[in-house]
Write a structure and sequence with these properties.
alpha/beta, 2 domains, Rossmann fold, seven-stranded parallel sheet, three-stranded antiparallel sheet
Length: about 325
Amino acid sequence: MPRLKKIVCFGGGNALPQVVLSGLKKYPLIINSITSMMQSGGSTGQLRKDLNVLPPGDISRHLIALSEAPQWKKGLFYYRFGEKKFPGGHVGHRFGTVFIACLEYLFKDFEKASLFAHEFLEVKKNRALPATIKKTSLWAELENGQIIQGEDEIDVPKKHDSKLRIKRIFLKPEAKAYPPTLAAIQEADFIILGPGDLYSSLIPCLLPGGIKMAIQKSRAVKIYVCNIMNKLGETNGFSVLDFAGEVEKYLGCSLDLVLYNTEIPDKNRIKEYRKKEPSILGIVKFDKELDKDKFIGKNLLKKKGSLEHNSNKVVKNILKLCRQ
């Protein structure tokens, strides 16, 4: 019986779980998904402060995406209760984040809490892993030299000028990578990065000490799935080349392949979407002179509704690239 290919996926938020993990899970692969553990806003941020635990929001989404449990368990994990309002417009807590946070609080051990969460959601051969289990915060230096603190402030600017570009992001205090995460990278056949918010979801996964070096040493094919839309405060005016360049800067090595969207949505569709998501600026531009051996352009857009990746299209293209 042939060995199952091992894939490591980096990212946070909703994009990676919904676009990549939920689709790849259907194939005979071993998936290790890695999230940064840097969230500081909303319900997750409140639990982090109140219980002094690691932020459980993103990893709970990874667990749901990889879950083979009945729908009622997944629905329960997503169920939001309570009327407390948090910064950023979030109301109430999601059951999944509370479940993981309380397990860690009771056991004083994130690894044990994660094990129980995997078991409850019936995540079998796959794993959702933290980039680090050290409590740390995400910081950013803007192009004017201003320093801002917190994943939530980078994600949704409230205290700084959102038109200023981010010069660099870093952790304070510094944090070492979670050893099982380093082992997963070492064993990977393919490494998938993104999609997702560049500075508040994806690149933070690469910051804990040891991850960058592990990726550099890895023989895995490194594939970046570029965002479709630019976001205010993070990627103002970015092109596909800009996205790939920033990822490579933090990796300290070249990407093997970059998968990007070539479909240009109707202007009215962009206008309607921006009414619902005012932080979205516009379509990510691409240069027609991109190296076609490295930059793979495809129609990855949903046919209608929100301007997001079509999961089936993305996963099929990832698998095609992996077979090549």
